[in-house]
Design a protein that fits this description.
The chain has one domain. It is mainly α. Helices cover 71% and strands 2% of the residues. Strands 1-2 form a two-stranded parallel sheet.
Amino acid sequence: MSERDTESMTFWEHLDSLRRVLLRIVAVLAVLFALFFALMPRLFDSFVLAPCRSGFVTYRWLHRLEAEVMPSLAGGADDFGVQLINIQLTTPFFLHLSTAFWFALVCSVPFILWQIWLFVRPALYEGERKGMSAAFLLSSVFFYLGAALGYFLIFPLTLRFLAGYELSDAVPNMLSLTSYMDNFLMLILFMGLAFQLPLLLTLLQRIGILSRSLLTGHRRHAFVILVVLSAIITPTGDPFTLLLVALPLYLLYECSIFMMRRA
């Protein structure tokens, strides 16, 4: 086994290497932030607010599915719509800034993970590098798969349920722009981060905290935990939506076991 590349580096050289990595990440974030800040008015209408309208792709797909499965119960065109209100003078400006930043952050995930990989790579042995390079590559793919699942499925179904849920007819729902954006960003980013499960478990296995045999021996417990987690993410109470979240998470758990090297 070859010696690690970092054995000859001093503490200050490590610190300087980390500084360069952070500067490159900040530079990319700044460029993307400026780009999305300029494009945000158009993106906000066509992308962020798209789940508020009945023409959203998920609603049209569900309406066609309902017409095919239960034609007797399917009605006409879906008239779902959510009208947002703003009650704070400064909210549009600060949401413009924060949403542009989150868009920049999401789009820079592959670059950030690549920079992190370049920083930790010299500290690994040759055999460790092969497995971890694949893990970092797949983590970007998994992040976008999770974010896409949150945007096209989890958030729209949650929005339809909560926006139409009224405790009393005397208290109509008036959804604020801030509340909408908080849930929009939380659910989509949470799903993207949840899909980092294979990378997290692989890293924990590499440093000796977890083992492949431990994960394989607790599959039932893991499934129950993931179902509970899915129920927290999806407050609709719909078993179909719950399974749509729980099954991908459990598949990621199995993928993590597959990615781990055998002890």
